[in-house]
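Lab meeting, item 3. Inverse folding demo.
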């Protein structure tokens, strides 16, 4: 299937946003947090872990350590113990401990807003930096996690494979006003219809716009599935 021109991608993006608004009128954020530090903690803990599991852990963690100062004053062992039910907890504890120390000592306890400063914190990559900048500080940014990268490619808006390049591609085609919610749309859509191992293209509300079902091999399978009424078929 031929790649879309920039103009075609921009048009597609607008139509997709309309369809996503209709499909998910009550789009909700999936991490629980009260301030930028708690969102940063949730973002760091979220690597290779579900948001549900992060929320379960932070519900207790933020009671025991209510501010960034409490994290900075704790020992690494205490933080490690407090998050031990999360995957990769030893590394994540080092990241939280290191980030808290830097934020307290260098930024007077305030999570920085600039991408460069955020990327200078342990455990903070482009995804977490965009998450904090967009969701907390409301600075236009696109969070490209595995859902967002994979589905944006299938939809036809992105061709690159690494998250930062995909983010730059999306910035060229999505209206800036939609950057922040695009990542949330993709996470929700990935859960509802477009799972990594089972894309439910037959029921997907984006199927008429998405470029993936237009691939010849997929079209053949879709026609067969429709004829057989395999509504839960995977593509
Ligand atoms: S049509 Fe299929 S591939 Fe495209 S977004 Fe929907 S489920 Fe994913």
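The presenter then showed the designed sequence:
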């Amino acid at each position: 299937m031929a790649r879309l021109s920039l103009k075609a991608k921009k048009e597609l993006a607008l139509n997709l946003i309309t369809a996503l608004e209709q499909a998910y009128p009550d789009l909700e954020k999936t991490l629980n947090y009260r301030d930028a530090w708690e969102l940063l903690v949730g973002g760091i803990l979220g690597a290779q872990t579900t948001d549900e599991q992060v929320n379960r852990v932070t519900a207790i963690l933020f009671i025991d350590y209510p501010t960034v100062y409490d994290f900075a004053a704790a020992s690494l062992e205490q933080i490690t113990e407090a998050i031990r039910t999360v995957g990769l907890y030893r590394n994540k504890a080092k990241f939280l401990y290191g980030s808290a120390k830097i934020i307290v000592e260098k930024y007077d306890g305030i999570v920085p807003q600039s991408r460069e400063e955020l990327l200078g914190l342990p455990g903070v990559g482009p995804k977490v930096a965009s998450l904090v900048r967009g969701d907390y500080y409301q600075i236009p940014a696109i969070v490209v996690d595995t859902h967002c990268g994979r589905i944006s490619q299938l939809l036809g808006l992105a061709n690159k494979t690494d998250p930062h390049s995909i983010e730059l591609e999306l910035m060229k085609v999505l209206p800036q006003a939609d950057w922040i919610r695009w990542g949330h749309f993709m996470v929700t859509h990935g859960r509802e219809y477009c799972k990594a191992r089972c894309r439910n293209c037959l029921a997907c509300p984006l199927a008429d716009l998405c470029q993936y079902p237009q691939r010849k091999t997929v079209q053949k399978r879709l026609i067969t599935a429709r004829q057989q009424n395999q509504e839960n078929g995977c593509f």
